[in-house]
Specification:
Rossmann fold, 7 helices, 32% helix, binds adenosine-5'-triphosphate, binds magnesium ion
Length: 211
């Protein structure tokens, strides 16, 4: 994945991970935190014990990382984000977090009056994370066949980068395809690359060209 990104996810930036259901957004988010840390996973919907359990299938022992202070899993109600940003910052300071994942920011939008409020909330969150020197992944849900990059149509403009995880239908098969829509300041690939989810997590297939 670092290769198609032109060197990886830039430090202290916010990158949107967009995709329809089951494309591996949560898996990628957890993988990002297990690869290097310390990190924080903020869930707005998914039960944390489910994530701990599900991660075991990829060989990631989140309990152990949590015990060693390398990872924190936090769950909040999405409509409380404004109140909990301070709490999240305290958690960042306590473990010296360098990476943070919000799963998903689409959940925030559902509780907001309008998209301008969501936009303001995402900008505020992204800039706070940057101030705290955290590299941030914001997970964004996309409706199938919509060709959109986010649920509310504002998320992709705020992020420094957008990675799309897609299901491409080919005959009777669904092929997994990943593409980098943008990454500010990077000469990233513009190709559509196939990826797979295996018992080691997400892996992008090597392609011959730069794409
Ligand atoms: N061990 C595994 N081997 C191969 N594929 C797996 C494995 N575990 C999970 N998967 C695939 O990963 C998908 C789920 O990934 P994940 O939960 O990360 O997706 P998501 O994009 O976060 O989904 P949602 O939108 O529902 O939150 C499953 O639907 C399945 O296809
Ligand atoms: Mg998910």
């Amino acid at each position: 994945m670092d290769e198609i990104l032109g060197g990886g996810i830039p430090e202290n930036r916010t990158v949107l991970i967009s995709g329809t259901c089951g494309t591996g957004k949560t898996t990628l988010g957890v993988q990002f935190l297990t690869a290097s840390g310390p990190g924080i996973y903020v869930s707005f919907e998914e039960d944390l014990d489910n994530i701990r359990e599900y991660s075991k299938t990829f060989g990631w022992d989140l309990n152990d990382m949590e015990a060693k202070g390398k990872l924190r899993l936090l769950k909040y109600d999405p409509f409380r984000l404004e109140d909990i940003l301070e709490v999240i910052q305290n958690n960042i300071r306590e473990i010296g977090a360098k990476r943070i994942v919000f799963d998903s920011i689409s959940a925030l939008g559902i509780y907001m009056k309008d998209v301008s409020e969501l936009r303001r909330m995402i900008i505020q969150t992204a800039s706070l994370m940057r101030k705290n020197k955290c590299t941030t992944l914001m997970i964004s849900e996309v409706m199938p066949n919509s060709r959109a990059l986010s649920r509310f149509g504002v998320e992709e403009f705020i992020a420094d980068g957008v990675i799309l995880l897609d299901n491409v239908i080919e005959k009777n098969d669904m092929k997994r395809a990943i593409s980098v829509w943008k990454l500010r300041g990077s000469d990233h690939s513009r190709g559509i690359h196939s990826y797979s989810i295996t018992d080691k997590g997400i892996s992008v297939k090597k392609s011959s060209g730069r794409g």
